[in-house]
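Table 4 source record.
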Amino acid sequence: TPVQVLDILREGNQRFCAGQQLNRDLARQVDATAKGQHPLAVVLSCIDSRTPAELVFDMGLGDIFSVRVAGNVISEKVLGSMEYGCAVAGARLVVVLGHTRCGAVQATLEELQRPTPIRSLNFRSIADRIRPAVQGLLETELRHDQEALTMHAVRANVRVSASYLRHGSEIIESLIQTDGLRVVGA
């Protein structure tokens, strides 16, 4: 069930945090998944090199579909990949994983506070997806504490992405209602 999968990921994260990751035979896992895969979860996380979901949740090959993009934002390609992981491959849980000091979130906040010439249209498309989640925070007292502002902005961005998945995809919304799929932020 989605609750069991969430428990498995939490236990894996506890092992990771404690430095007690499971010892896996990757060659055997490659062979075991050669004819198919049945991932437990789809994890949307940031491209940040410090946050690979397989390591953070102490998972092996074939355990999760890992979708990574700066700022864990959702585009059509990301959404299509996640829909595939749930509808076709049968993942029971979707996790939107944020992380401390997210560079994409920080860059978006900086752009909102001190606009600069466009860096690139591609980066702008990422910042445009983060902006609605974080813009309101700049009108609060958090604007005086950059570290707290960033922490709250990362969490707000995760919440917005998770909500979008629950309500912005007919496929995922249907799986939530009829099949018990669960979408969570972390």
